[in-house]
Amino acid sequence: MADPVPISAVVLSHNEAGNLPRCLRALHGCAEVVVVDDGSTDDSRRAAAECGARVLEHPFSSFADQRNWAMDSAGLRHDWVLHLDADEVATPAALEEIRRLLPSMPAGSAGFFARKVMMGEKWLRFSADYPVYVPRLVHRRGPRYAMRGHGEALAVAPATSVFFEEPLLHYNFSKGWAEWRARHLRYAAAEAARIRSGAAAFSFRALVSRDRTVRRAALRALSYRLPGRPALRFLYAYVLRLGFLDGAAGWRFCRAMASYERMIDAALRGAGDAEAP
Question: Domain spanning 5-170 has what CATH number?
Answer without folding.
Answer: 3.90.550.10
